Amino acid sequence: MHSIEPVRVSSWNEWDPLRHVIVGVATGSHVPPPEPAVNAKVPEDSDMLGIHGIRPKETIEKGNELLDNFADTLRHRGIRVDRPTPIDFSQPVQTPDFHTSSQFGCMPPRDVLLTVGSEILEATMSYRCRWFEYLCYRPLLQRFWEDDPEFRHEAAPKPRLTDRDYRKDYLADSISEEQRLEWTARKHFVTTEEEPLFDAADVLRFGRDLVVQHGFTTNLKGIEWLRRHFPDHRVHAVNFPGDPYPIHIDATFTPLRPGLILNNPKRRLPDEQRKIFERNNWEIIDAAPPAHNQPPPLCYSSVWLSMNILVLDPKTVCVEKSEVYQAEQIDRLGMEVVEVELRDAYAFGGGLHCSTADVLREGDCEDYFPVQPD
User: Fold this and answer.
1) CATH of the domain at 93
2) Angle at CA 323, nearest 5°, toward 322 and 325?
3) 99 is catalytic
């Protein structure tokens, strides 16, 4: 239903007061079939090995119940909420370069959509099964474009995703975690530099500065593409050597408010890359430990979705209800905790930050890092 109030698109960072957001849905979600990017992400002991197809009906219904409740929680706090329109994810993806027998879903809009000021950019994506995921958001983006004369709807060039985009050594049947950590420490990821690749969830917005994770889903050419696309921004590449599966930055590095960031203690930012924060008096602290020692069934993500939180404003943070240690830490930092039950929806693509994409936050583009590294 079209709201009486026209849409305005504007969001420059991860913490200014949230006024309009997209919350994903679980409808039709699939465990995708094997492909190079998926195979590299699934651990050797995962319950997802050898399984693909539509997810069990009861899990989809539960996931949608939790996502609907999350959307209602945000609405009750005066935040406008829109939802994507799922396509038939059982359809194959066929291009001149590849074929995959089914798709993924549209629970995590943060992976696909990057909002920078009055622009929403559709990411390239680096999984073949997610090639057409942007279609779920096109009805919303078309309406935003009609409502807001300042809104810029952009789409990054679609990659070909041929076999040349992926390293063959990541296709081995078994790769030890020690080997994975050694590879990621020297920035040897499953994606090559064949063409620009990036997922929107690898980007954090700090006003004039964009911090982008180099890992499995975003390569250096993708970071360079973002640098050229946003010429008025400073784009900084980061990586986290302690992560054997470096996909998306928002369970590793989480800004809470100006001057304060949570960092996954298992995946600390390297000293050289900390300089821009330290020279501008930002504090980087270890996140609290997760409350769980295993992810939910059929879940790609790690237990560190505990720190995949949604900041509503510099004093208010949504935290998953069962993540009691993370909630306690946020409370000790003087911020209000809004408990949201979402763990049984993790398997559809992530946590509270993943399952949302900003449309409107109050505030302008500020320079939070006036002192740049040498």
Assistant:
1) 3.75.10.10
2) 130
3) no
